[in-house]
Amino acid sequence: MSWIDLFRNKKRNTAVTAKERLQIVISHERTRQSQPDLITAMQAEILSIIAKYLGIPTDKIQEQVKVDVERRGEHSVLELNITLPESAHKALPKETAAEEA
Amino acid sequence: MAEVIVVTSGKGGVGKTTSSAALGTGLALKGYRTVVVDFDVGLRNLDLIMGCERRVVYDLVNVVKKEANLNQALIKDKRLEELYILPASQTRDKDALDIDGVARVIEELKAANFDYIICDSPAGIEKGALMALYFADRAIVVTNPEVSSVRDSDRILGILASKSKRAEEKLEPIREHLLVTRYSPTRVERGDMLALSDIEELLAIPLLGVIPESLAVLRASNSGIPVTFDQESDAGQAYLDAVDRFLGHKVPLRFVNTKKRTLLQRLFKAKEGAAA
Ligand SMILES: Nc1ncnc2c1ncn2[C@@H]1O[C@H](COP(=O)(O)OP(=O)(O)OP(=O)(O)O)[C@@H](O)[C@H]1O
Ligand SMILES: [Mg+2]
Fold first, then answer.
1. Among B70, B74, B82, B63, which residue's Cα sits nearest to residue B24?
2. What pLDDT shows up at residue A73?
3. Whose CA is nearest to atom 16 of ligand 1?
4. Quick check: CB of B251 below 6 Å from ligand 1?
5. Where are the extended beta strands (E) located within B158-240?
6. Which of B4, B120, B208, B241 could hold B177 in an S-S bridge, CB 3.0 to 4.6 Å?
C-alpha cells in the first residue's frame, strides 16, 4: 500500500478514523484527570527501585530508564525501557546478565 | 436574577466571538437585557464583530483597575435597546485582569439589571480563559467538527468541572451546552468530517445547536453586523434556534443534512462535473 492509499481508503473514511482516535485520547485524558497522581507516583517508585538495585545515581536515572504509560484501545500498557549501564552489568550475577542480553 | 454565561472552547478560531455576538444579539432580540463582555484582553475583536469599534473609549481592564466606571465603559448597541458590549483592552495583556477585579465587575453588571452576562473567552486554558469561565453559571462549549477542537473541548469541560467558582465552592455544577459550529453536512456525508452524532457521543453534553459553515458569517463580520440580524441566512436562523433552545424551548435541528437532490438535479450536477 502506498502512502497515498492511506488517504484514499474508501471503506474506512477519515471521519471514522478521527472518531476512533478521539475516543482513545479522550478516555485516556479523562482517566488521567481523575487520578492524576496514581500513575506518576507509580512511575516515580518504579524508578527509585531500579535505581536502588542497579546502583544508578538518582540524577542519572531519567536518562537510562524510561517508564511510559500508553493507552491501547481498552487497555493501558505500562512500558519499561531500561538501558543498563556498564557498571550495572558488572554488578549483576552472571546468569541474570546473560538472560538480559 | 442575572445568569453568567461563558462562551469557551480551548482551541482558538472555532467561533467563540462570532457565537458570543450572535447569541447575545439573539437574546436581546427576544427582549432580554444582555451584555457581551470581551475577555480576550490584548486581542479584542468583539467590538469589530458587533460593529462598535469606533465607539470604544474605556474597556474591561479600565473598569477592573478602577480607572473608569462601568457606565463609561459599557457601549450600548445602536440597533437593539437591550444589548450592550463591554470591550476588552487592546494594549494590555491578560495579566492585567485579576479575579477580585473581575468579581467586582460581574457584581456591578448583575446590579445593573442585566438578564444575561455573556463572557467571550480567549483561546487557551491560561489565565484569560480561566477568568472568563470562573464565575459562569452556564457554559457554551464551541466545537468544530475536527479532531483538535473536540479534544480541546473535552479538556475545557474538565476545567469547567474543576477550576470554576461553582466547582471550588462545591455548588451545583455549571450547566454545559454544546454548540457545534462550521458544520458542513456535505463533508460529513462524504466521510471527511466528524458527524454531529460522533461529537455528541464523544463530549456527552446536551446539544444547544449546530451552526453550518456559512458565507453569511463572513459577510456579517465584514460589515460588523452580528449574523443573527441576517434572518434570511442559514447561520442566522441556526443561531436563533440555539437561542430558543437556550431559553428552554424545543426546536428541531436544521441545516444538519444535505439537501436531497432530485434525479434531474443529480444528472445536471454530473454534467457540470464532466464539463469542469
Ligand atoms: N459558521 C461559520 N461559517 C463560516 N465561517 C465561520 C463560522 N463561524 C466562524 N467563522 C469564521 O471563523 C473565524 C474565527 O471565528 P471567531 O473569531 O468567532 O473565533 P474565536 O473562537 O473567537 O477565535 P479566537 O480563539 O481567536 O478568539 C472567523 O474568520 C469567522 O468568520
Ligand atoms: Mg474570539
1. B82
2. 58
3. B15
4. no
5. 175-183, 207-212
6. B208
Residues B185 and B257: beta-carbon distance below 8 Å: yes
How far does CA B43 lie from the centroid of its chain? 16
What is the DSSP-derived secondary structure letter of residue B141? E
Q: What is the DSSP string of chain A?
A: --HHHHHH-SSS-HHHHHHHHHHHHHHHHHHHHHSHHHHHHHHHHHHHHHHHHHT--TTTHHHHEEEEEEEETTEEEEEEEE---HHHHHHS-HHHHHHH-
Distance CA A16, CA B257 (A): 18
A19: contact with B, CB 8 A cutoff: yes
Query: Which class for B220: exposed (0-12), middle (13-18), buried (19 or more C-beta within 10 A)?
Result: buried
Spatial separation of the C-alpha atoms in residues A26 and B150, rounded to whole Å: 9
Rounded CA separation B152/B123 (Å): 10
Q: Count Cα neighbours of A56 within 13 Å in the Cβ-side half-sphere.
A: 21
Residues of B in contact with A15 (CB under 8 A): 188, 191-195, 198
Considering only alpha carbons, which residue of chain A is nearest residue B154? Answer: A26
* B182 Rama sector, left if φ>0, alpha if ψ -120 to 50, beta otherwise: left
Which whole-number Å values give the CA distances from B196 to B10, B100, B149, B170, B183, in the listed order? Answer: 19, 39, 13, 32, 8
Entry pTM: 0.80
Q: Which phi and psi angles does B244 have, rounded to 5°? A: -60, -45
ipTM, 2 dp: 0.76
Q: State whether the beta carbon of B233 lies less than 6 angstroms from ligand 1.
A: no
Convert the pLDDT of each residue in A47-82 to its tens digit.
888 888 888 777 777 777 777 666 565 566 777 777
Whether the CB of A26 is below 8 Å from some CB of chain B: the reply is: yes
First to last CA, chain A: 35
Q: What rounded mean pLDDT belongs to chain B?
A: 94
Grid cell of A67 as nine digits: 517508564
Decide if A17 touches B, using CB distance below 8 A: no
Residues recorded for chain B = 276
Q: How far is CA B259 from CA B185, B189, B192, B255, B262, in A?
A: 9, 11, 17, 9, 9
